[in-house]
Amino acid sequence: MAGRVSGLAVRRYLTFFSGLFECLCFAGVIYGWASLVFVLKKDNYFGSLCVNTTGVNGTHELDCSGQDEKFSLVFTIASFMNNFMTLPNGFLFDYFGTTVARIFGISIYTTGSLMMAFSSSVPDLLFPALSLLATGGIMFLVTNMQVGNLFGVHRSTIITLYNGAFDSSSAVFFVIKMIHEIGISVRTSFLFLSACSIIHLVRTFLLLPRKLIPYPLPDNYTYGITCGKSSTQTSKVALNDEKPTMIEEISVKKVPTVETPVEKTFRQCILSWFFLWHLVWLSVMQFRHIMFIGTLNPMLNRMTEGEPSLVSSYLNAFAITQLCGVLCAPWNGFIIDRLKRRYQNRGLNEQEADLQATVLSLFITALQCMLFSICATIPFLPLQYFTFVLQVLNRSFLYGGNAAFISVAFPPRHFGKLFGVVMALSAVVLALQYPCFSLVRDVLDGDPLYLNIGLALFCLFAFIHPACVFRHCRRTAAAAAAASSQDMSIHS
Q1: Over the range 315-337, which residues count as b (16 or more CB within 10 Å of their CB) and which as e?
Q2: Quick one: which of 117, 162, 359, 413 has the most CB atoms within 10 Å?
Q3: Measured between alpha carbons, how far is 340 from 408 in angstroms, rounded to an integer?
Q4: Judging by DSSP bridges, how do beta strands 60-63 and 225-226 pair with one another?
């Protein structure tokens, strides 16, 4: 029996670390777009859109605004698909389970990387290729976040850690940029990413469940391929009929039944104020980050007066800071888990303690976004190093906090669907980025300063959500205290 428990622990840690590797190296690569577009420009993608023009001093200049517009459209569509396709992905995950969802995700991710590999001869392949990479990558994240259920009190920390790894995977395109400078082509890099699909398949069948990982976790829960008979305490009939197969065993040991509140339906969750303000919270800050990434290249070009080596240097610094996302994100989960234990010690039940613990996380995330936006509005080149740090810190808190809040504020069986809906609806806001890019190019003469000021003010809406959650928690605590004092007076 001790050997079995030890084997379960080893498998869980293998699942955790392999999932972390998968999110870190594959899931969110499209957010490294600023590094990739630098490579694509060197390889003359959409180069025919650059035209010779005459400058104010009669000098001949190369105007590549048409090329920039094309690249902006590629990224706009991909980031929209990254969010919007989370909706069908979430339903697929909740209804058909992990195996089916991951096979679908692996298929489209591999197709996207193959398209990228052969896009040099047909640049328009960038449109479907990057969108498929985005859609498949978010499926890796969705199917891996359930691993947090295996670790009990550290659940929020692991969920935020995986989201941080998702952010840090944007550095993959930075790696492609670096090896491109020593002579390795884009085609070779993406063919290698395609071959790595074997790793995803191995994890799917050996280290993940066929359906979903439940929460709270039953005793002696196992998953993956198990050979031989199980020692889980089940009925004799079940033991006699057991065969080597892919299984997910749940102990049938009796547990005392307790009265629990009626679980909300999916419709009730969608129509709740919690969901609405959480959607606003996510959409506002996500839009700010997407606009920053999408305008970073032209912004640096303007600040450096078009010096390619200086632009490359700052892009490298930006990409390196993205690697730190996996280090920043767990702090958000640590805050939630630590506060949860403190609130439980004060007598709150697990659900209310979970919810109240998210208030500080939501507020800190909104404050970080405001500070990052203010720094981005200041046209002082060295300050952008600090902007990069704030940006990666805030994005790590944002996506990790989004997943953690949904997991604690709503029933676990709706997680995939709700995560998909909130990401899909926020994608509608992201669709505004292309008109904003056009505004910067055509009206603001390529200077995003005034747009950045407007976006900084827009971020004020993100503070509404933590205020609403805090108000709800205060009301709940007051109601509980009143009920407790009433019970005491009755008994006395």
Answers
A1: beebbebbbbbbebbbbbbbbbb
A2: 162
A3: 11
A4: unpaired
The pLDDT value given to residue 392: 86
Confidence of residue 248 (pLDDT cuts 50, 70, 90): very low
Question: What is the pairing mode between strands 245-246 and 225-226?
Answer: antiparallel
Return the closest-CA partner of residue 397 out of 348, 445, 363, 434: 363
pLDDT value at 219 more than 90: no
| Token reading at 447 | 């200077």
Question: Minimal CA–CA distance to 335: which of 392, 269, 396, 286?
Answer: 396
Q: Closest Cα to residue 225, out of 240, 250, 243, 212?
A: 243
Q: Is 290 exposed, middle or buried (0-12, 13-18, 19+ CB in 10 A)?
A: buried
| Spatial distance between the Cα atoms of 453 and 136, rounded to a whole number of angstroms | 34
CA distances from 15 to 123, 205, 479 (A): 38, 11, 42
Spatial separation of the C-alpha atoms in residues 89 and 252, rounded to whole Å: 31
pLDDT digits (tens, 9 = 90+) for 287-339: 888 888 777 877 888 888 778 888 888 888 887 887 787 788 788 888 888 88
Count other Cβ atoms within 10 Å, centred on residue 239: 13
Please give the single-letter amino acid code of residue 359: V
* 323 half-sphere exposure, CB direction, 13 A CA radius: 9
pTM of the model: 0.70
CA distances from 429 to 291, 363, 406, 436, 449 (A): 11, 21, 20, 11, 21
- Cα(401)–Cα(362) distance, integer angstroms: 7
Instruction: State the maximum Cα–Cα separation within the chain, in Å, rounded to a whole number.
Output: 94
Given a contact cutoff of 8 angstroms between Cβ atoms, the answer to whether 309 and 126 are in contact is no
What tokens appear for 301 in the block? Answer: 């070009």
Q: Minimal CA–CA distance to 299: which of 438, 432, 440? A: 440
Q: What are phi and psi of 54, to 5 degrees?
A: -105, 125
User: Are the C-beta atoms of 250 and 221 separated by less than 8 Å?
Assistant: yes
